[in-house]
Amino acid sequence: MSFHFADIARQAASDRAISPEEILELRRAGWADGRMSREEAQALFTAQDTLTAPCQEWTDFFVEAIRNYVLEGSEPRGYASEEEANWLIAQVEGDGRVCSMAEMELLVQIAEKSQNVPEILKNYILDTIEEEVMTGSGPTRCGGELADCHVTKAEAQIVRRVIFGQASDRPGGVSRSEAEMLFRVKDAVVTHDNAPEFKRLFIQGVGNYLMGFASASAQISGERALELAAFISDNKVNVGRFMGRMAKDAPNAFGKVFGRKGTKTGRDVLYAEAISVTSDEQDWLDAQIDANGEVDAYDQALLEFLAEETGQA
């Protein structure tokens, strides 16, 4: 770590404030050799923990710099090692407070942009996002707000980014643990005035787990990530035929992810196999719906969605 970088970081921590000009100097000094070092990343977390009213420029720099260190600091690029994952968790937990908005955005971007991260970090990100959605309050990094009594549009989008992220439990799709998280959040807020985006996410997310196409162990290429971009950001009012649209919009889901050429016949076979809800999945679904003692409006919408997707509507 250069003396200049260390001096600015220490001054920011001491003053509990940092100016846009100082942030620009940190950018220049921090990436002088093309990488962010452990000492530099540690200094940024120290400053982050002390700043009283960080500006937008700081948040942008902090997220970019720490993400760069965790994902680009060692080979292979784009991945986090077990040691880097444990370091990141320790830093986020270090100040003893609920994850800040900057730290939450950092975790979301790591889930989105990394090729893969260790299981301990996947679980930590999912647990942290669930806690923030359930208990957080205040403005989010990218507009909107967190609310502790209902799910806002911004919160629904944050959850969507995480569970469909490249480094999620199930790359490009929703895992069982992620679907169970959606049920827990839904059960906690079902009687409140939630954003319609959350209901769509709940239906699409659980539906994707039950009938999705992505392999649980798939690693997503850059090409595959582009194919999924439109699917991940889907917030249309009409959720019907969601899986069919995914098949049409991202046909490579049937090819590279499953190790087959994306022929029409191959896609049709895989679609038919994936869309079937197995007995184990049905038992799981029944248990999730029974958890709150009723078939609520979200459960009913999910059941109607599944019936439509399987042709039983």
What does this structure look like?
It is built from 15 helices and two strands. The chain has helices spanning 3-15, 20-30, 38-50, 56-72, 82-93, 101-113, 119-135, 153-163, 176-189, 196-211, 222-232, 242-249, 264-275, 279-290, 297-309; strands at 138-139, 145-146. It is mostly helical and 313 residues long. α1 runs antiparallel to α2 (20-30) and α3 runs antiparallel to α4 (56-72). Helix content is 62%, strand content 1%. Residues 251-265 have low confidence and may be disordered. It has a two-stranded antiparallel sheet. The protein starts with a helix and ends with a helix.
Residues in β-strands, percent: under 5%
Tally of helical segments: 15
Strand runs, count:
2
Give the N-to-C terminal Cα separation: 62 Å
Shape: elongated
* Widest β-sheet, arrangement of strands: 1-2
Determine the mean pLDDT. 81
Which oligomeric form is depicted? single chain
Major sheet: 2 strands, antiparallel
Structural class: mainly alpha
Offer a few descriptive terms:
single chain, 313 residues, mainly alpha, two-stranded antiparallel sheet
What topology emerges from the helices and strands here?
Blueprint: H1 3-15, H2 20-30, H3 38-50, H4 56-72, H5 82-93, H6 101-113, H7 119-135, E1 138-139, E2 145-146, H8 153-163, H9 176-189, H10 196-211, H11 222-232, H12 242-249, H13 264-275, H14 279-290, H15 297-309
Antiparallel strand pairs: 1-2
Give a short overview.
The protein is mainly alpha-helical. The chain has 15 helices and 2 strands. Helix content is 62%, strand content 1%.
